[in-house]
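lol ok so funny story. i was supposed to be doing the assay writeup but got distracted and ended up predicting the structure for this chain instead. priorities right. anyway since i did it might as well share w the group, maybe its usefull for someone
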Amino acid sequence: MMRSKRCYHNYSPMPVKQAGVVLIVGLVMVLLITIVSLSAIRGTGLQENMAGNMRDRNIAFQATESALREGEGIVGPNNKTLDPFECVQKSGLCQDLSIIPRNSVLYMADADWKLSAKESLLAIDEVASKPSYLIEELQVDMGASAAAEGSAIDVAGMMTTGDAVPYRVTAKGVGLSQDTRVVLQSAYKRRFK
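and the output, tada:
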């Protein structure tokens, strides 16, 4: 019988040098994922800040609008008599301040505004300080104003339609922080018969 020879070779291949490409690719992928994650976190924080600022501005706008409506109610038709427009401290009633442009409410310093304007009586809890308003009795040529509207400009026409007095109501308010400020104005014409 013939025996087969089995040959066992002690085969040991030469060690292959590894270049570490997989390690470098893996590190680059981790770096990219980190950059994308950080930008997503930053974007989320920015959106949250924007939403908070919009909420703060909305609260300031609503508070200021409530003060504006309060001021309009004073010169509204339901109020038969008005206090004199003498611009005394915290009365909120002044003659036309825009006759001299540098004195207008748009250029008025905060200290002057606080002296002249009337603080809103409404209880608004969410704002840093209560809104305030200032009502101006405007000085205009009523004949020219009436002619522009198409109404009568003679004495008999004024007697039948009544004398119209224009007012400007300006309200200022803040939101949750003093940095969020809103200024609103409206014009109102009141007829007296």
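Helices lie at 21-75, 110-116, 142-149, 155-161. Residues 21-192 form one domain.
back to the writeup now i swear
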